[in-house]
Design a protein that fits this description.
The structure is a homodimer.
Chain A: H1 8-11, H2 21-34, H3 47-54, H4 58-71, E1 74-77, E2 81-84, E3 109-110, H5 123-136, H6 151-165, E4 174-177, H7 180-193, E5 198-202, H8 207-215, E6 219-223, E7 225-226, E8 229-230, E9 240-243, H9 257-270, E10 273-277, E11 301-306, E12 318-321, H10 324-333, H11 342-353, H12 356-382, E13 387-389, E14 396-400, H13 406-415, E15 418-419, E16 421-422, E17 438-442, H14 448-461
Parallel strand pairs in A: 3-15, 5-6, 5-9, 9-10, 10-11
Antiparallel strand pairs in A: 1-2, 4-12, 7-8, 11-12, 13-14, 14-17, 16-17
Helix pairs in contact in A: 2-4, 3-4, 5-11, 6-11, 7-8, 7-10, 12-14
Chain lengths: ~475, ~475
C-alpha cells in the first residue's frame, strides 16, 4: 500500500507559479488537514520530496510547513519529521463550518498593529502560576464574586501599577474588566448616565473606540494634534477626554509635559474626566517610561491598562483605576457581579506577585527592541524615502512615506500577501489635520521565524 | 520569649457564652490573621489548649478552625497542626479595605440556593485539562477572537449538548458568554433592537432577570403557574418567554408535556421567541432528565446553559444555542470580539472532550442526591409540618411550610447564623398567585464538613 502522502502533491491542486505560491500551498495543506484527507498523526513528505513532486522550490514548502506548525495544524519534531497535529483542530474563527470549503486566504505576513508576539506567550510560567493559584485559592473564590474583580488581583495590580507606572491607587479603586473595550463600554454607560454627551478623542486613534462610545449614546469630537501631541485646549464642550499620553497611538510620540499639565488643568477647571489609555506602558526601550498621567490627579484621571499587549489579548483581562465614586458606579454598571473568570484573575495575581510578570516583560522588551532596531536599520538602508518616527517604545512604529504614496504601498503589500495598515484608517473622520502619508507598522505580530521574512516583504513594497 | 499564641485566648475578645460563640470565635480568628497579629506560618494552639484557655467546648474551637481552613485562612496538616496560611490572604469581597475592621459576620451555615458545592470543584482534573489545552493550542488562539467564542469549545459543547440534553445544534449556532446573566443581557439588547417590548416570565424566578431585561428597555409580565407548570396561554402580548422548563426555579417541577407543546405552538403562532434557561439540566437523580425544549423547535427556542452549577460560577462560562440569524446579532451585540478568556474556554473544551466533565458530573450527582435524600429524611422525621415538593433534581428543594410561617422561619434562621431564603423573594411582584409559604433550600452550597450541621440548623428552625 502506498504511503498516505504518496499522492499528496497531486491532491493539493496548487498552481506551482507566481508570488502567491507559498500562500496557496499553505491553504491547500490546511484544507487537506481540516477536511480529514490528511488524518491526525500522518507523516508528511519531507520538504525536499514534496518540492520535487510539485516542481517548486524546497524553501517554499519549508515555509508553508513552518506556517502551519505555528498555526497548530502540523507538528515538527527532530527525528520524527512533520506530522499532522494529533489533536482535532477546529477551524479558526471566520472560516465556514462545513468540511470542505477553501479557507479564506491568510496573509503570508502580518505587520498590522494591535497584537503582541503570541508565540512568546509564557505558557509554562503561566501554567505554573495557574497551578499555584488554583491550589491555594479558598473555595469561596470560585463563587459569584465582587464586580470589581478578585481582591488578590486588585491588590497585586495596585502594587505593580504604583511601582511600574507611578499610578496612585489602592485595590478599592481598581475594577478588573474583560479588555480595554469592555472598560470603555462600562465608562461610556456610566458617563452617559451622569448626563455626559461628548467625549473628546485624539485626531488619530482606533475607530472602534468611537463606535463603543456611540453605542452608549456619546458623541466623539477630535482634538487637534501638533508637535507637542494632542492639544486639550479645544475641549471646552467635552465631558471627558480619551487619550494615549505615554505613547500616542498610532503617532508614536509621548504627550509633552506642558500638555500633561494642561490636561489636568482642563479637568480641574471643567469638572471633566480624563481617560488615560495606557495600552503599552511596559514597553519603552531607551529610558524609563514616563509615569502615568493619573499620578498627577487620581480624582480626575482614569487609568486604563491591559494584559492584551504585555501577555495576550485572549486572556481578556484589563483594569481601570478610578476615583472611588466612579469605581462604585462602574461596578454597578458591570451588573453587580464579576464577569471575568476568576481562575485567570487569580493566575495573573500570582504571576504579578511572584515576579514572573516582570521577567516576562523584560524578555519581551529585549525581543521587541531588537525587532524595532532591525526595522529602523532595514528601512534606513533599503527605503531611504521612508522614515521611522516616534519614540523607541511599544509594538509599532509610524513609518512616514512620500506624499501621496500610502494607498498604493498598502495595496502593493496586499498583493504580496503582506497585511499592512496605512495611517488613513486611524484618522478620525472629523479631524482637521493635514493628511499625512504613513504606515502603522506593528512589529509585535509575526512569530520569530516569520519576522525577517515580514521585514523583507515590507522593504520590498516601500518606495526605494 | 512566649510562643506567639500564648496570649491568643486573651487577644481574641470572644464572649464565651451563647449560641453565636462559634461564629464569634471564627470571626475573631479571621480578624487576627487578616490584621497580621497572627503572621503567616504561625502554628495555632491545639483546639484542646485554646478551648481550655477560653473556657469553652473543644468542639467549638475545632469547628471554628475547620471553617477557617475551608475559607483558606488556616491550613491543617497531619503532624504539623493548624497554621496560619502561608500565602497572603486578601480580604474577601465586601469586607472593608483597612487592616483592623471587624469582618461582617458570615453565616455559620448557608442553605441559600444558587451555588454548587465549591469544595468539590475538580481542581486537579481542571489543572490537567488546562495544561493539555494550553500546551496544544495554536498561537493564534491567544489573539483577539471570534465573538461567538473559541471554536474548540463550541464544537465540544455541540457534541455534549446534543448527547446529554437533546439539543439540536452545530457549533455555528452557539455563542459562549460570561454566565447566564451576560447571555440574557445580550439577548435583551438584541430583542430590544428588533423592536420587542415585553418578555413574559414565570411567576416564580430570580428578580435579577427582570432587572437585566429592564436595563435593555424591556418590561416583564408574569405568566400564571399551576399544577402543570407555567401556562403560556396568557402570553399573547409578549415578544419572548423566559422559562425553566426542565426544573422550574424555584418550584422544582418540570413543565408538563402539554405545556411544552403549547409553548412551541405559541412561538410558531406569534413569531415570538422562547428562552429556555437550562441552569441545572445535568442533575436529575431518579431518571433520565427531560430533553431540552430547544429540540422541539431549534429555530424558535434559544437554549441557555451554564457551567455555574455543574462546575463553578467563578469560571464565568455559559452558552447559548441560537437560531442562526440571532446568533449573528448576539455576536454583534457582544461587540464583535470575544469577551470571555480563551484559556478557560480551551480548558472547558478539553474537559468536555476528554470525559472529565462527565466523570465530574456523575460524582456530583451522587453527592447531591445523597444530600437531597438526607434532607428529605430529616425533614420527614423531625419537622412533619414541612414538606419537600418537586422532583429529585438540581441543587435545591422547595420546602412547603404551614401557612403564615415563612417569614418567622427565615428570621429565626438568621438569628441562628443560618442563611436561608423564603419563597417570597422569588415571587414576581405582579404575579397573581395565591401566596405560598415555603423555603427555597439550596443543598449544594455547604462544603461536606458543614452539611450535617447545616441540616441540623435547618431542622431546628422548622415548625415541629
Amino acid at each position: 500500500m502506498a504511503e498516505p502522502w504518496a499522492t499528496l502533491g497531486i491532491d493539493l491542486h496548487v498552481e506551482p507559479t507566481g508570488p502567491g505560491l507559498r500562500r496557496g500551498l499553505t491553504d491547500a495543506l490546511r484544507d487537506a488537514v481540516r477536511s480529514g484527507r490528511l488524518a491526525p498523526g500522518t507523516r508528511l513528505p519531507s520538504s525536499r520530496a514534496l518540492a520535487a513532486d510539485l516542481g517548486i522550490a524546497r524553501n517554499t514548502v519549508a515555509d508553508a510547513y513552518a506556517d502551519l506548525v505555528a498555526e497548530g495544524w502540523l507538528t515538527a519534531r527532530q527525528g520524527s519529521g512533520t506530522r499532522v497535529a494529533a489533536r482535532e483542530v477546529v477551524p479558526p474563527p471566520g472560516t465556514a463550518p462545513h468540511p470542505h470549503p477553501r479557507a479564506p486566504a491568510r496573509p503570508a505576513y502580518d505587520l498590522r498593529p494591535g497584537s503582541p508576539d503570541l508565540a512568546s506567550f509564557p505558557r509554562a510560567a503561566w501554567l505554573k502560576a495557574a497551578r499555584r493559584a488554583l491550589t491555594t485559592a479558598p473555595h469561596h473564590a470560585l463563587d459569584y464574586g465582587d464586580p470589581r474583580g478578585r481582591p488578590e488581583l486588585r491588590a497585586a495590580l495596585a502594587g505593580y501599577l504604583s511601582r511600574a507606572r507611578g499610578v496612585r491607587t489602592d485595590p478599592e479603586r481598581i475594577v478588573v474588566c474583560a479588555g480595554f473595550a469592555h472598560g470603555l463600554k462600562l465608562l461610556g454607560t456610566v458617563l452617559r448616565a451622569r448626563g455626559a454627551r461628548t467625549v473628546a478623542v485624539e485626531s488619530y486613534g482606533l475607530d472602534v473606540h468611537g463606535r463603543i462610545l456611540a453605542a452608549s449614546g456619546l458623541d466623539t469630537a477630535p482634538l487637534p494634534f501638533d508637535r507637542l501631541g494632542t492639544d486639550p485646549g479645544a475641549a471646552s464642550g467635552a465631558d471627558a477626554l480619551l487619550l494615549t499620553p505615554a505613547h500616542q497611538f498610532p503617532m508614536g510620540v509621548p504627550l509633552h509635559r506642558d500638555r500633561r499639565t494642561a490636561l489636568v488643568d482642563w479637568a480641574r477647571r471643567t469638572g471633566g474626566l480624563v481617560l488615560e489609555d495606557d495600552y503599552d506602558g511596559e514597553f519603552r526601550y531607551d529610558r524609563q517610561p514616563v509615569g502615568a498621567l493619573q499620578g498627577l490627579d487620581p480624582d480626575r484621571v482614569v487609568h486604563l491598562g491591559t494584559a492584551s499587549k504585555s501577555l495576550a489579548p485572549g486572556l481578556r483581562l484589563a483594569w481601570m483605576v478610578l476615583p472611588p465614586r466612579l469605581a462604585e458606579e462602574v461596578a454597578a454598571a458591570k451588573g453587580g457581579v464579576d464577569t471575568c473568570g476568576v481562575l485567570d484573575q487569580l493566575t495573573l495575581a500570582e504571576f504579578l506577585t511572584s515576579g514572573a510578570y516582570d521577567r516576562h516583560v523584560r524578555a519581551a522588551r529585549l525581543r521587541y527592541r531588537r525587532r524595532r532596531d532591525a526595522l529602523v536599520a532595514a528601512v534606513t538602508a533599503r527605503a531611504p524615502q521612508a522614515r521611522v518616527t516616534g519614540i523607541a517604545a511599544g509594538l509599532h512604529v509610524l513609518l512616514r512615506l512620500p506624499a501621496g504614496t500610502e494607498q498604493s504601498v498598502v495595496q502593493a503589500a496586499h498583493w504580496r500577501g503582506l497585511a499592512l495598515h496605512g495611517l488613513a484608517r486611524y484618522t478620525h473622520p472629523a479631524a482637521r489635520a493635514e493628511p499625512v502619508d504613513a504606515l502603522v507598522v506593528g512589529y509585535g505580530t509575526p512569530p520569530d521565524h516569520a519576522w525577517s521574512g515580514a521585514l523583507d516583504a515590507l522593504c520590498a513594497v516601500l518606495p526605494g
